[in-house]
């Protein structure tokens, strides 16, 4: 016969070992509503650890009117930058004893709407959306019942916390760095922008070219992916004459770009200099390692979690984070 199933540890067991009432155990677990003396609190925590007690999350949520779970929507779970953001958000939530419900919105406004409604229906206490595909007007019309944070949002939105890196400065320093290596023709490579979205990286590129007295080059617009970068390289190669350098607006695109070069027997930076934007491990471990504008992932994730924990407000809360340039071999630095 199989071993008897072990009885689950209860709140009563903890109270008995700690020599307190079950109400005191609840006050310690829920951090209120009544205060508990520090020596008593320590004794309850000791009993919890000794017995391996795990509070029932559903019961706790019902008693406190909160789920302690926050929804996170991402457009592409295969994107390494999105994965880095998700990991940082999960760490920031876990440090506060909070849980994350992750959903893949698949880069479509309709899916984003369905995902958001599903999350709120499941009782999340707030939502963090990375790179929303929904227009500003639609967000305003939603009148959400929970706090929401929009990451990668370049313009403020009343009633929501919006967070983004300094895209324009990143575009400027990336292009300026290529020019400092002697590049005179720098081609920007990026994906389609959402309706009404400002292409700040392109504006930064244009500023740097103008400051150097160089003509802006025709952009290559492709998908925001490794495949998109691969196809962009093929477009440039088929033109018959490579530019001095390319500025890919994401690490993933740059990795695909390098792959296409390699298949043609070409290499960066000898045949063409390459720089990109994001600062993920994809850039660090590519061949050659990619110079990249690095986003402060941890700081932005901390700000997003702090924002979603604040009570819902009608105020504007827009935060722009500084970026930095990490130089490696792909641009010509050794």
UniProtKB/TrEMBL annotation:
Q: Which keywords belong to this entry?
A: DNA-binding, Repressor, Transcription, Transcription regulation
Which Pfam families does the record match to this protein?
LacI, Peripla_BP_3
Residue ranges of every copy of the HTH lacI-type domain listed in the record? 9-64
One of the record's GO molecular function terms = DNA-binding transcription factor activity
> InterPro entries from the xrefs?
HTH_LacI, LacI/GalR-like_sensor, Lambda_DNA-bd_dom_sf, Peripla_BP_I
**Mind telling me what this protein is named?**
LacI family transcriptional regulator
List the source organism. Scrofimicrobium canadense
